[in-house]
Amino acid sequence: HRSALNDFQRSEGRELVLKSWNADRLTLLPGITLEECAKRCSQSLDCRAFNYEFRPSVICKHLPWVDDGDNAEVKRNVNCDLYEMKVYVRKCIVGKGEDYRGKVSKTQSGKTCQQWWSKFPHDHRWTPSPTNGLELNYCRNPDGDRIGPWCYTTDPERRYESCNIPLCKDEVCINCNGEDYRGQVDHTVNGRECQRWDQQYPHQHIYQPEKYPDKSLDDNYCRNPDASPVPWCYTTDPDVERENCDIRKCSGIPKRRLRPSYTTNCFRGRGEDYRGKVNETTSGIACQKWDAQFPHEHPFYPHTYECKGLEENYCRNPDGSEAPWCFTSLPEMRTALCLQIKRCADDIEAEDCYHENGKNYRGIVRKTRKGIICQKWSANTPHQTKINPKTHPDANLTENYCRNPDGDLHGPWCYTTDPKTEFDYCAIKQCAGEKVPIMRPAEPVVFNECGKRDDRMLKSRLR
Amino acid sequence: IVGGTPGNSPWTVSLRDRKGKHFCGGSLVNSKWVISTKQCFSSCYVDLTGYAAMMGTLFQNPKEGEPGKQTIPLNKIVCGPSESHLVLLQLETPAEFNERVSQICLPPERYIVQEGTVCEIAGWGETKGTGDESVLNVAQMQVQSNSECNKYFKGRVRDNEMCTTPFSGGVGACEKDYGGPLACQNSDCWVLEGVIIPMRRCGHPGQPNIFIRVSLYVDWIKKVMEM
């Protein structure tokens, strides 16, 4: 049930380009599936990576090198994904490292390794072959030695020595419950291989990488997208859906505790750093203590989530929900959000003020209330402007200064240089003591295309 | 919705997170845009990958293939003027209007809806045991003037907010209703006069309900849709 892609590390939107002197050493396989391309590369003796191009047509290109700086280089190409054999790009080892294929060629005491093909200064019985990886003088572990990858040294006085390549599970330690772990462990605590996150077999799941871009669900590496106690993965064993991974915990005070981003009387983003003392839900129901299992049993033990501030019964967000929440003290209501906690204002300080609605503002503020630099009124990127010096010649639309050419009642604004934000109001506030008048009830207004409802519908649909 | 009954509100949508769970309400102000409250979103730059609006069904968790259900991914969020607590969400594809899905009317700019006007709120949120959370609940209420409302809230109700009358039995919006509509009747049409925002308690007996007054932001809504 394992995919051949499990042996590869994917680089999205990347292409490996060989150097001119070895550019002819690639193999083209048009039109085959990604899985087939990977399988054939694994079976081929001189394939270590492949470009999988999907536009304009599908082409699988087998390559004899990975991105090691001197034999090939990686370029950006949105129509292509690069897959490199893990064993050639990994800087750490799994198990005893028999499959290590990195390029370290010095021993732990700094001695240079002897070439494997050479018998001098130390004679030995190993002979390089296309399959045993005994390349040049790189550290290897052909005999499964306990000490991991090793080599004969060029020091006549020292026959061989370990190269001290770190274990992947120790190479990167985790803080708290490892939500930001981005290491390369790809086996579980019981040695089961992990399933790729971008595959739905043998286990169907909801954690598709494109739906959780912030969770770095790369390849089949252990990750923690759901605030579990430790990083975990789905396994290639059809009988075991998911299992935790064994990754070293960083020693000392978890870094997160020192982060100044903690807030107490409002929350930012999803509120993971909220540390205030609100302990009831929006509807006024008291929260259950985190260290209690009644009336609701739950997995969020304060000692397991040591960095989440699960004190008393305060509203917290240990699992990446939309906002701080808690288990409630009502048996029939398990959890509830604490959305009554204010969101911290993310506007920057106002840098100027305007009168009335700001239509006559002629200042030089050129930043939005979120601190984004304004786009020039005369430019058309990143946003095509419908309002510009041509359409509003007397609105003083100079440079990228905040202006109010259309008399927007909410004040001066500008197009922004953020491609995702077309326009926004500026870091300018109304001068003290001014208010825009509110209309009194107008004459009856007639609507026609909206707000119509067929109340007879309700009975038929609920039946 | 506390103190409501199952009802029909074709402009009310259910906002779904990446796990497909309902987390807030919203209203269709045209076929491509839904209005809701900023309080439901972690930021104005939140990555909306996987988020969607579900409409055309009365059920919170409709069965696969239920006729009329439309689930449309969200692909853009625009935050309203400061203090508005509003966001506009763009649908990846236009909603299909039919007898189950329609857009709600927008009030005239800076219009104050008359005290006593009949309105209703709608949502799939918490009922606190007063109703069935598996279907859309609707509760009727009447507009209360800000001056009247400020007697109860000791002057804290601002101009950009509006109130509806309290009920001794307690009627109001609750968790996961936020962002949903306060729709008020105008002859045979319904107009979006308010957006539900979190309050200190849900459906508290004798407590008026507070909403963001949409008429103050109609110019912004139109500007975003035009831009």
Topology:
The complex is a heterodimer of chains A (463) and B (227).
Chain A lengths: L7 E4 L2 E5 L8 E4 L3 H10 L5 E5 L5 E5 L8 E5 L3 E6 H4 L60 E3 L7 E3 L5 H4 L60 E3 L7 E3 L80 E3 L7 E3 L14 E3 L58 E3 L7 E3 L2 E3 L25 H7 L1
Parallel strand pairs in A: 14-17
Antiparallel strand pairs in A: 1-7, 2-6, 3-5, 4-5, 4-7, 8-9, 10-11, 12-13, 15-16
Chain B lengths: L4 E2 L5 E5 L5 E9 L2 E5 L14 E4 L14 E10 L6 E6 L26 E6 L13 E8 L1 H8 L7 E4 L16 E6 L2 E8 L12 E5 L4 H9 L1
Please, could you describe this protein's structure?
The complex is a heterodimer of chains A (about 475) and B (about 230). Chain A has about 475 residues and is mostly beta strands. Chain A has four helices and 17 strands. In chain A, the strands form seven sheets. In chain A, strands 1-7-4-5-3 form a five-stranded antiparallel beta sheet. Chain A has a two-stranded antiparallel ribbon with strand order 2-6. A two-stranded antiparallel sheet of chain A has the order 8-9. The longest helix of chain A is centred in the N-terminal third of the chain and has 10 residues, at about 35-45. Chain A is globular and about 100 Å long. The model of chain A has no long low-confidence stretch (mean pLDDT about 90). Chain B is mainly beta and about 230 residues long. Chain B contains two helices and 13 strands, in the order βββββββββαββββα. Chain B has helices at about 145-155, 220-225, and strands at about 5, 10-15, 20-30, 35, 50-55, 70-80, 85-90, 120-125, 135-145, 160-165, 180-185, 190-195, 210-215. In chain B, the strands form two sheets. Chain B has a six-stranded antiparallel beta barrel with strand order 8-9-10-13-12-11. A six-stranded antiparallel beta barrel of chain B has the order 2-3-4-7-6-5. The relative contact order of chain B is 0.25. Classes of the chains: A mainly beta (about 475), B mainly beta (about 230). At the A-B interface, strand 16 and helix 4 of A face strand 6, strand 12 and helix 2 of B.
